[in-house]
């Protein structure tokens, strides 16, 4: 039996769940590592130092009670550990899989600073909640006592789903409107299965549906109903659409056939995984099989694209990023996984132009160097006049991030105020937009960010909407009594 006593970080090594061999995992879209067996999970949780100031919790957007549920896990009290982790997060097993722990909780672990290697927080979180699902500890969503008020949530991504769960628990009728045919947003269509297998998302959505939340799929605000019409249907509205407009590359030939957006590529792949008919995949447009693939970008979306292309049996996969490895925004763990699977990274490079007869066949790239720091403090990339090269490319994937769509125009709501970046402008205290009773949360407010921040924003906005709706109900009741 494993020694599960605490404070064992000095003589117990950090051990992550074993990954499958790269050549095997590149053949499918299953997650690359299994979860811990029980003794290993307890042993790794027991490495926590139970420090007085838990920087892991401080740097977690949800402020999860990490040392507490690590202690409970080490003691074999798994159900209590699950209940504690579930108290602050609506999707702990999803965060355990896709959060960049190396930049958040684990990257700020006290024993990481001491040189002993961080506690494997994400892997333990995944273990706890997967065990809870298997053992039947995940309870149904029980609606609160009906308040006779309804809420419309626009967007079924993590922010919208998180807010919907809290609002339903507070007794509101909740309707979720989403443009896709399945709920989940980027969890469903943007993140590949090797990071987040789709049944993990589906079971969360099904739990919400069983709790009485009504989902309106294939529903576009502005096409199927205007914002004004939704405001008339509901007592409050939440805009949680995320940001989906791909950032453009300004270079000759960027409109050539074979130069595609990352989200289109990832969505096609995920749809094939669901067994959908995907003509753009079947005709080869969004299929990397046998092609020389070049992905442009250095964030997590770019990592998803290169690793997806490997699994589609691309002839070669290269990633061009204009800064160096140390300055890339994506997870270093994802870079390591990609390199293991055969991706070649071309650091300090940026596309100059795309060429080909009828379709792209060549990427001409500039060599870059790092100059003075920019406004964010990162060293700004600039063209190195001494460099430059060409790459063969049958498929170029643009993965430079996402900006907000023009929601006032799309929603037919010109009075909806936005920032100069196109994100929805909200009151920082209430999270209400310029329209009374219309709130916003997630990436559509903060810009492209992490799933864990979207979950946090959904939790925060639900609390503010609850206060607003209680005040509105009280005012309506007072006005009714006065009229009588």
Automatic annotation (TrEMBL):
Signal peptide: none annotated. InterPro entries: DPD_II, FAD/NAD-bd_sf, FAD/NAD-binding_dom, GltD-like, Helical_ferredxn. Residues 151-458 form the FAD/NAD(P)-binding domain. Residues 25-136 form the Dihydroprymidine dehydrogenase domain. Keywords: 4Fe-4S, Iron, Iron-sulfur, Metal-binding, Oxidoreductase. The keyword Coiled coil does not apply. The keyword Metal-binding applies. This is Oxidoreductase. It comes from Sphingomonas glacialis. The gene is gltD.
